[in-house]
Specification:
Mean pLDDT: 86
Distance between the termini: 17 Å
Keywords: DNA-binding, Sigma factor, Transcription, Transcription regulation
Low-confidence stretches: none
CATH topology of one domain: Arc Repressor Mutant, subunit A
CATH architecture of one domain: Orthogonal Bundle
Pfam families: Sigma70_r4_2
GO molecular function: DNA binding; sigma factor activity
CATH class of one domain: Mainly Alpha
Organism: Mycolicibacter virginiensis
Oligomer: single chain
Family: Belongs to the sigma-70 factor family. ECF subfamily.
């Protein structure tokens, strides 16, 4: 599924609101496809810290984006 232009703009806007560290882990995980171990080694942080940052970053993104009608 390809997001509409408006949805892509909303996502870009929400990403810019994240801290640099959150953007770094999101980028490496979802765009580069790296494992948490690879991200941890690259950023010089603990693997558990990466997992926590990914969780917190995704929660922040969800809070910053309007619902798009997806039922869970």
């Amino acid at each position: 599924m390809v997001p509409s232009s408006g949805s892509a703009d909303q996502l870009k806007g929400a990403l810019t609101q994240l801290s640099g560290r959150y953007r770094a882990v999101i980028y490496r995980s979802y765009y580069l496809g790296w494992t948490t171990a690879q991200i941890a080694a690259d950023l010089g942080i603990d693997d558990d810290a990466v997992k926590g940052d990914l969780h917190d970053a995704l929660c922040a993104l969800r809070a910053g984006l309007p619902t798009v009608g997806i039922n869970r």
